[in-house]
Amino acid sequence: MATFPKLFEPIEIGGHTIRNRLFFPPHGTSLGDQGVVGDRLIAYHKARACGGVGMIVVEGMSMHESFDIPSGYILAGREEVVPGFKRLAQAVQQHDTRLVGQLFHPGVAMRATLDGSRRPVYSASDTPFERYSLMPVPASHDLIGEWVAGYARASLHMIEGGFDGVEILASMGYLIAQFLNLRTNRRNDQYGGSLENRMRLLTEILSAIRKAIGEGPILGVRVTDGDVTPDAMEAAEILEVCRALEAGGLIDYISVIGGNTSTARGWIDVFPHMAIGHGHVADNAAALKAGLSLPVLVAGRVNQPQLAEEIVASGKADMVGMVRALIADPRFPAKAQAGNPDAIRACIGCNQACVGHRLQYFGVSCIQHPETGRELIYDHDKAPAETRRKVMVVGGGPGGMKAAAILAERGHAVTLHEASGQLGGQALLAQALPGREEFGGIVTNLAAEMERSGAKVLRNSQVTAAMVREAAPDAVVVATGGQPHRPEFDGAQEAHVVEAWAVIRGEANVGGSVVVADWKNDWIGLGVAHKLALDGCRVRLAVTGMVPGQNLQDGVRDFWIGELHKLGVEMIPYARLYGADADTVYLQHTVNDQPIICDEVETLVLSQGTRRDVTLAEDLADWTGELHVIGDALSPRTAEEAVLEGLKAGMAI
Known about the structure:
Blueprint (H helix, E strand, L loop, with lengths): L10 E3 L2 E3 L3 E3 L14 H12 L4 E7 L20 H12 L4 E6 L18 E2 L13 E2 L2 H20 L4 E5 L5 H6 L14 H4 L1 H14 L4 E7 L10 H14 L4 E5 L6 H7 L11 H9 L5 E4 L5 H9 L5 E3 L2 H5 L3 H6 L17 H4 L31 E5 L3 H12 L3 E6 L8 H5 L9 H13 L2 E4 L5 H7 L3 E4 L3 E3 L12 E3 H5 L8 E6 L4 H12 L3 E6 L10 H13 L3 E3 L2 E6 L4 E5 L5 E4 L4 E5 L2 E3 L2 H5 L6 E4 L9 H14 L1
Parallel strand pairs: 3-4, 3-12, 4-5, 5-8, 6-7, 8-9, 9-10, 10-11, 11-12, 13-14, 13-16, 14-15, 16-27, 18-25, 19-20, 19-25, 20-21
Antiparallel strand pairs: 1-2, 17-26, 22-23, 23-24
Helix pairs in contact: 1-2, 3-6, 8-20, 14-16, 14-22, 19-20
């Protein structure tokens, strides 16, 4: 009997049979080639098609010159995209995966530019846009006509390129959603007022597309349901929109997502991170599906096949989308269908290398699976080593584990030495914080990969240079990580000072009034402040940056700042640690050097960065074998760089 029977039932949408109920939803990748599809994007999607996904919806693409940003988007409105579309379609469809392309325009929500200067932005009305502090220009009828024609032209290019269909984004507070929503559409012409009028732009677009592409291709629309922003459309009105689209006979499916780009809170739900519940949009999709006959698709924080099966089997949705889950493991569908879900590298919802990269217009990747976005460099099936070598990996953090797994997979004789009794390194600190428990998945996943690869693991094994010379390996990977940096400052001996790492481990005695001095501006200081506030402490979080968590992906950062605010944590920006005494912490403004004094302090908690552990690497400087130093032992950064360097070392030996 199949492990996930409903998940791997075929479904017919718009006359096209899709082999299973899993789809890869649209998402920006920054893997295009100056506005056209190139080798990187083809390899990226081909890997997911090879992995067994039923349908791929290619990222939201531009359809009009007012949104033609070639550095960040595919310019589907231009004829030169068609050859790349053909290559992409061939690469995907040969694996029995359907290919749909999404078209969208952000309207006022346009952060991208061509040259650093901002373009005029257009919307239904001149309603202020909070998140980017923009005041749009109401679109003229001529511009609306250009948009409609642009959608039709771009859709035709997709079908000429061999795509199976087209999806229109009418969600997340972007252009079409700005017209649909009475709160952002205050027009008094045929495009405003009644719901029928507010839907007019969408229905004109769909009619023009269907006329251009004919009846054969799939045509779908993506809507938002579950928007928590103050100006969100009501669920009943969203259902009314979907019913009207169904009655019009122009579309073949409705796709449902959460979030809204217009506010910081809404943006969090566009890319829900590990503190947001799994499958958080599924019930909204179920409510829509109950009122419709069309197939309903849903996506949003689904990273396990068990949950996807439940969503389909219970009738909440007909297909389940997974972006980050398939970024983390392109072969998720194949592993689930084979009845081997434990082999899936589950997404942990950190948003670091996927969303974080995209928002800086770098190619998407994954901290657990850096092969993502680098498919042209690293095949899924790693090339076997020409000569089997004896390799010692020192350090059982994420970087060391990745190196060991890759090396053993390629046929080397690998032994990983971990000085403590537990694998994971600093990832163990992250998972110990409230709301970040899922980060421990990186340890679980990499440990499982090591076990499957055949690498030998020795815990409580402190390696010295003498041990290396005695063992005489052919190569050594030093992944010894680092230790907390403790700067010198006046009063360090007089004050009650503890390290953030010790607080997280439960090894520190912390008083009721705390200052957290955070130099690194990442999850450590922010997370410790949150933990101590939950414990009932009065917490002041002093950061050297503009905001706590400045170096985190913005949606993750904003969520935790909101949580700190709810707990009454005082946040002090632009503040470096200067000194302390028995009950006072002295800070210095990083811009004007003025003092900032925190009195009535019982404990000073330090989050002052990491110093690399260089002992072994330096002791092996004259060793004649092959030596690779990775992760924090090379230069203190994050798990992302450690795992990437583990991959590189694993492929280099």
